[in-house]
Every structure is written in structure tokens, then in C-alpha cells.
Specification:
The chain is mainly α and 253 residues long. It is built from nine helices and five strands, in the order ααααααβαβααβββ. The protein has a three-stranded antiparallel beta sheet. Strands 2-5 form a two-stranded antiparallel sheet. Helix 1 runs antiparallel to helix 3 and helix 4 runs antiparallel to helix 5.
């Protein structure tokens, strides 16, 4: 693994680990009923100083994963790009509620940028790569959605079984039942046997964070992946329903 990719993996791992840390901290606050004020509605100062941290860390990770690892420059160019991601990453959950939340997010941004800035070349030699995962650009996501709509009769907001579809080879399953019958390892093996190396996750919600994975990635769990070679595709409309277009019989599962 080259040094630029190692630093990219380091940044992703930092966000994942710190996200998990602050989620657990907030869970502890909730378990102790310390997240809400006496009115039962407003957050306590402790809560406001905690949950915005994992929100901004998630936004930073998504921004990092928008960077195509194959296009990384030299080490210092990559370092500057990652620091910029830490400074500018935003989403719907990084809008500060008040000064406490804003300060918490600023602190997490500064901590991330400092970590990346000070991460040494010697440390990069010990970095283990993470499974491939890249957030698609808006143009890529829109292009894939356009292909799906045309092929599987998907309107703007809903699709089968929440919208009519005249195609004869579309089935819908309960997500949990499908996941139980088709463990992700088996799904990976089936796709690999067809020569499919990468899959897309296209979301009904949060379309700006659609993702690409390698089929061997352990990030692919159950139905988190949508394969889009013309032969096979699945998508997510509802937590309990997974519409799955089924081409020729050999692809039926």
C-alpha cells in the first residue's frame, strides 16, 4: 500500500473509531437519563457537548470517502486534501443547535485535522488498509438512478411494491427474511461467480451518499449493497420491503 492510500485509510479509520467512541459516550448519557432537561424536550449541556461530535465525524468520513483512492496524489497533497475535508464537511446533522454543540463540532474538526497533520511517515508503514468504499459523486449517482428508472420503471419517489410496475420479472421480499435466507457471504460469492467485482448502494434517502463497494468488502452486510451490472439489481424502498428485479432463471435465489 502506498503512503497516500495509507493516510487515506488512516483518516477513515480515525473517523470510524472516534464515531464509535462518541456514540458509546452518548449512549451512556441516555442510559443515565442525562440527555434531556427536566422539561423532557430540550437537551442537556452534556448531551449537546457529545452527540454533535459523532455527527460531524460521520460527515467528515463521508467527505473523505468521496475522494477516489485511485486518484490520490503524493503524500502531502493527500494530507492537505484530507485536512480540507475535515474543515469543510457538512450535512443536515452538522448544523449547530447552539453554542455548546458548535464548540463540540469545532473541537472534533480540530482534533481530526491535528491528527492527520501530525501523522508521521514512519506510522504510515504500519497502517492496514480498509475495505474499499467510495461515496459516489452527485453526477455518478444521478446517472445510475437514471439507468435504474428506465430499466425497472422507477418513478421519482417510490417504486415496486409501493408503486405500480408492469414488468413480469420483479419480486418483493421482506428485508429481514431475505437477509436470513441470503447471508452476505453467499451474496458475495454469487456476485463474484458472475464476475461482478463492485456493487453500488443507492439510497432512497440520502441519495447524495450513494456508495460503491468491492464485492469482497466486509462493509457489505446483508442487503446493504445494490449490484447494477445490467444483469442483477436490488434496491431499498422500505425497511421491510426489498424489490428485486429477477432476470433469467439462473439468477433467481
Amino acid at each position: 500500500m502506498n503512503k497516500s492510500l495509507a493516510l487515506h485509510s488512516t483518516a477513515r479509520r480515525y473517523c470510524l473509531q472516534q464515531f464509535a467512541f462518541w456514540c458509546e459516550r452518548y449512549s451512556e448519557i441516555v442510559r443515565k437519563e442525562g440527555d434531556r432537561q427536566l422539561d423532557g424536550y430540550h437537551y442537556t449541556a452534556e448531551a449537546l457537548a457529545t452527540f454533535p461530535r459523532y455527527n460531524v465525524l460521520k460527515a467528515i468520513r463521508v467527505e473523505i470517502e468521496r475522494i477516489d483512492p485511485a486518484g490520490l496524489g503524493d503524500l502531502e497533497t493527500t494530507r492537505a486534501l484530507l485536512i480540507l475535508a475535515g474543515e469543510i464537511a457538512e450535512d443536515d446533522f452538522t448544523r449547530p443547535i447552539d453554542e455548546i454543540a458548535q464548540r463540540a463540532m469545532i473541537e472534533e474538526r480540530e482534533a481530526f485535522c491535528r491528527y492527520i497533520r501530525e501523522f508521521t511517515v514512519a506510522n504510515l508503514n504500519e497502517v492496514e488498509t480498509l475495505p474499499f468504499r467510495r461515496v459516489l459523486t452527485g453526477i455518478e449517482s444521478n446517472a445510475l438512478w437514471s439507468r435504474l428508472r428506465g430499466k425497472w420503471q422507477i418513478p421519482d419517489h417510490y417504486w415496486y411494491p409501493l408503486a405500480d410496475c408492469t414488468l413480469p420479472d420483479v419480486a418483493a421480499f421482506k428485508a429481514r427474511a431475505f437477509e436470513k435466507a441470503m447471508p452476505y457471504q453467499r451474496l458475495q460469492e454469487m456476485l463474484a461467480a458472475r464476475g461482478i467485482e463492485r456493487v453500488w448502494e443507492l439510497r432512497e434517502y440520502g441519495r447524495s451518499t450513494s456508495r460503491m463497494y468491492r464485492c469482497s468488502s466486509r462493509f457489505i452486510t446483508g442487503l446493504k449493497a445494490t449490484g447494477l451490472p445490467a444483469t442483477w439489481t436490488g434496491s431499498f424502498t422500505h425497511p421491510m420491503r426489498v424489490p428485486l428485479p429477477l432476470p433469467a432463471g439462473s439468477w433467481r435465489v
